Amino acid sequence: MSKAPTARLDRLLANLGYGTRREVQGLIGAGKVVLDGKTLRDIGQRLAVVADLATRMTVRGAPLDPPAPLTLILHKPLGVVCSHREIGRSLYELLPERWRARDPVLSTIGRLDAETTGLLLITDDGGLLHRVISPRHHVPKRYRVTVDRPLAGTEAALFVAGTLVLEGESNPLAPANLEPLSDTTAFLTITEGRYHQVRRMFAAVGNHVTALHRDRIGALDLPQDLAPGHHRVISAAQLSAVFTPDQN
After folding, report:
1. Which residues are within 8 A (CB) of 60 and not within 5 positions of it... i.e. 6 or more apart?
2. What is the pLDDT of residues 140-196, one digit of tens each?
3. Given CA atoms 68, 116, 222, 152 in this order, what sign does their dihedral have?
4. Which stretches of 5-163 are DSSP H helices?
5. pLDDT at residue 197, rounded to an integer
6. Is it the case that residue 84 has pLDDT exceeding 80?
7. What is the pLDDT confidence band of residue 1, given thresholds at 50, 70 and 90?
8. Can you give the pLDDT at residue 175?
9. Measured between alpha carbons, how far is 212 from 112 in angstroms, rounded to an integer?
10. Cβ(144)–Cβ(229) below 8 Å
11. Single pTM value for the model
């Protein structure tokens, strides 16, 4: 069994966004950090960074934020962007403010455009991020699509054939599965993440997407009790569902 990594108390708190090293040293000196009921005052004390640390330590009387690696599932609402560089309200504004100062930083695993809602994963685990988005792993992502005009009935065969070439591109898309739900709604499962891929696929068959919602990555479903704009920490066991093929 490998030993748990350790970190200096002041560096740990600074990396979690509680302030600069000097600010967290003041926090510790003021007796605001407690572990297992004991006030910590040694800024250089090394602590084992273990999974239950967040349940045993408090800062200013509140539970310690989860140390890295941290992965969140977030229900992205309409009108929110996934990048600091895009114009509009950022999804990072939905998270605690100090989380924006965490080191390593939190990043979205892939993106959803401003007009797309649903399941979004956010992590500071670079290995996990690349594993999910890598084309080599073919992680399926399911979307509920609403279109402007009735489906023609030929879309499913075209999408699954793996021959559709989007406008402005030369390589065909990987096969995608379409499951019609009504004349104007369907589930579409893709394994790639090209720019505005779902919208462009329907544009290629003469239709227009009016609403787009991602509800599944792999076999990980967006929890029904997770309201738009809210997030929660997910465990390694829950994350394993991302790499389980969708059997539905």
Report:
1. 27, 32
2. 999 999 999 999 999 999 999 999 999 999 999 999 999 999 999 999 999 999 999
3. negative
4. 9-15, 21-29, 53-56, 126-133, 155-161
5. 97
6. no
7. low
8. 97
9. 10
10. no
11. 0.92
Identify the CA nearest to 244 among candidates 132, 76, 129: 132
Q: What share of the chain is helix, strand, coil (3-state, %, to 5)?
A: 25, 25, 50
Backbone angles phi, psi at 200, to 5 degrees: -70, -30
Domains of the chain, earliest start first = 6-63 (3.10.290.10), 71-134+219-243 (3.30.70.580), 140-217 (3.30.70.1560)
Which helix (H) or strand (E) covers residue 238, if one does? helix 236-239
Q: What is the DSSP string of 176-236?
A: -EEEE-SSSEEEEEES---TTHHHHHHHHTT--EEEEEEEEETTEEPPTT--TT-EEE--H
Q: Which residue has the tokens 């114009």?
A: 87
Tokens 């329907």 appear where? 202
Q: Which two tokens stand for residue 17?
A: 């966004």
pLDDT tens profile 12-30: 999 999 999 999 999 999 9
Q: How far is Cα of residue 108 from the mean position of the Cα atoms in its chain?
A: 5
Tens of pLDDT, residue by residue over 176-190, are 999 999 999 999 999
The reported pLDDT for the residue numbered 83 is: 81
Of 126, 89, 128, 115, the closest CA to residue 214 belongs to 115
Catalytic residues: 113
